[in-house]
């Protein structure tokens, strides 16, 4: 599908992706956003894995089945947010390459997707480029490349990869990546339009829930709680009505929807409901970012956050034990446990690997908490360099400017944060209000 076909529906999106040089998946977890093709139902996935393994017992030289088995293991890890499947996926994919060392696009693409999942974005880029040498028309490889370039902080290259994916295979995976790319550039209206196009193409419950989750997230970022609540309800209705055979596949999207519902409940002051919502998320996908959000709400409610923080540490250790690298998550953990100097070192390590906006944001905030506001300012500016509009980012910018004595910038950024979403955080929004009030003449 050529970009001109988008012009009737989302002209600005077509313009951005068509130019390719304009400056530009957790679930949204800190620093990551990855996308996958539509997964099969869980029962079909398990049956496929069993069939692949049986096939390989009788035909161990079937390189295509080794690659398919690796991709299936990677899908299992995504569905349950379980990195313990990463080594199995890698073993199968590397076996495929061992059997067929050259011309093996499926294994190279699979290794790229695995590298993205492990936050080895440089490795993911390398594997994707190798796959594209084998098959320059692989939309899947371009998707892996787009995810890697995004996280590495290469906006023009990311946009070009998304555009090529759209050219080769317009559909759910390319639309969602295009929407995320537009969001990173601050083009929220066009991002919503392209995600709505993705929703139109979705047929499987997991896909429908996924699209509603991201549409709800876009609405929440704009402070549109009515639209957020509508998409959350629609997404949960889709997943709640899903047959048991496919319920596990929707787990990731369902968890994201409950996380957004928790934010809606916290916005109206119902912390108990918000905590109950987050319990559902933790039961499905106990990731570091969700557990840290839970710890923050527990602290706000006057309850002990230590159990959630311990689980967050355990989740991080499980990720790294299975080949993942996540100094950004470790930095967020350090901040949550009052170790700002350590958070600075960890976030700086991550920045040296990838110059992505979320990394710059957390690094700037860590520097502020460590009493180094002058050093924080260049990084918070870098975090917003693409034009992304985000209340939390504006709040960070405002507080860092205030600490540097730049009252004019502080006022502008704090006003922006509260105008975008006055309830963006039950902890930080009241601080932003007080800081802004102190700046009034």
CATH architecture of the domain at 1-201: Alpha Horseshoe
Q: Determine and state the CATH class of the domain at 1-201.
A: Mainly Alpha
Q: Report the portion of residues in β strands.
A: under 5%
* Anisotropy-based shape: globular
Major pleated sheet = none
Secondary structure tally: strands: 0
Radius of gyration: 21 Å
Q: Give me the secondary-structure category.
A: mainly alpha
- Count helical runs: 24
Protein name: Tetratricopeptide repeat protein
Organism: Dactylosporangium fulvum
Task: Describe the protein in words.
- It comes from Dactylosporangium fulvum.
- This is Tetratricopeptide repeat protein.
- InterPro entries: TPR-like_helical_dom_sf (IPR011990), TPR_rpt (IPR019734).
- It is built from 24 helices and no strands.
- The chain is mainly α and 441 residues long.
- The chain is globular, with a radius of gyration of 21 Å.
- Helices cover 73% and strands 0% of the residues.
- The model is unreliable at 1-31 and 242-250 (pLDDT under 50).
Brief summary of the model shown:
This protein has helices spanning 11-19, 42-58, 63-80, 86-99, 105-117, 121-134, 139-152, 155-168, 172-184, 188-201, 205-221, 225-240, 244-247, 251-267, 271-284, 288-300, 306-321, 327-336, 340-353, 357-369, 373-383, 391-403, 407-420, 428-438. It has 441 residues and is mainly α. Among the domains are: 1-201, Serine Threonine Protein Phosphatase 5, Tetratricopeptide repeat (Alpha Horseshoe), CATH 1.25.40.10; 202-285, no CATH class.
């Amino acid at each position: 599908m050529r970009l001109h076909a988008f012009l009737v529906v989302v002209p600005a999106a077509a313009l951005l992706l068509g130019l390719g040089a304009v400056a530009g998946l957790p679930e949204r977890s800190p620093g990551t956003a990855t996308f996958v093709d539509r997964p099969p139902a869980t029962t079909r996935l398990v049956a496929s894995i069993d069939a692949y393994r049986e096939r390989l017992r009788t035909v161990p030289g079937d390189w295509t089945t080794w690659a398919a088995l690796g991709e299936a293991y990677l899908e299992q890890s995504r569905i349950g947010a379980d990195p313990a499947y990463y080594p199995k996926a890698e073993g199968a994919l590397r076996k495929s390459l061992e059997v067929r060392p050259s011309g093996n696009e499926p294994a190279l693409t699979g290794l790229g997707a695995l590298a993205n999942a492990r936050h080895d974005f440089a490795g993911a880029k390398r594997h994707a480029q190798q796959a594209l040498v084998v098959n320059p028309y692989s939309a899947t490889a371009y998707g892996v490349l787009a995810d890697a370039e995004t996280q590495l902080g290469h906006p023009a290259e990311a946009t070009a990869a998304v555009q090529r994916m759209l050219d080769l295979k317009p559909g759910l995976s390319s639309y969602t990546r295009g929407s995320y790319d537009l969001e990173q550039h601050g083009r929220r209206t066009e991002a919503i339009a392209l995600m709505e196009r993705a929703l139109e193409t979705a047929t499987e419950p997991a896909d429908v829930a996924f699209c509603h989750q991201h549409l709800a997230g876009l609405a929440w970022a704009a402070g549109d709680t009515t639209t957020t609540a509508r998409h959350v309800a629609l997404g949960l209705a889709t997943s709640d009505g899903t047959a048991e055979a496919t319920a596990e596949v929707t787990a990731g999207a369902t968890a994201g929807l409950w996380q957004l519902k928790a934010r809606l409940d916290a916005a109206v002051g119902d912390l108990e409901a918000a905590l109950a919502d987050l319990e559902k998320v933790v039961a499905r996908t106990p990731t570091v970012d969700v557990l840290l959000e839970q710890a923050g709400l527990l602290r706000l409610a006057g309850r002990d956050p230590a159990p959630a923080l311990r689980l967050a540490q355990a989740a991080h250790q499980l990720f790294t034990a299975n080949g993942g690298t996540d100094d950004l998550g470790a930095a967020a953990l350090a901040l949550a446990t009052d170790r700002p100097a350590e958070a600075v070192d960890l976030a700086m390590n991550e920045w040296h690997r990838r110059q992505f906006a979320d990394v710059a944001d957390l690094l700037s905030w860590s520097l502020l908490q460590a009493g180094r506001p002058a050093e924080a300012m260049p990084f918070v500016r870098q975090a917003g360099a693409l034009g992304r509009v985000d209340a939390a980012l504006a709040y960070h910018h405002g507080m860092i400017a205030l600490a540097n004595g730049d009252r004019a910038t502080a006022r502008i950024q704090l006003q922006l944060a509260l105008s975008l979403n006055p309830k963006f955080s039950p902890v930080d929004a009241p601080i932003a209000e007080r800081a802004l009030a102190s700046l009034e003449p």
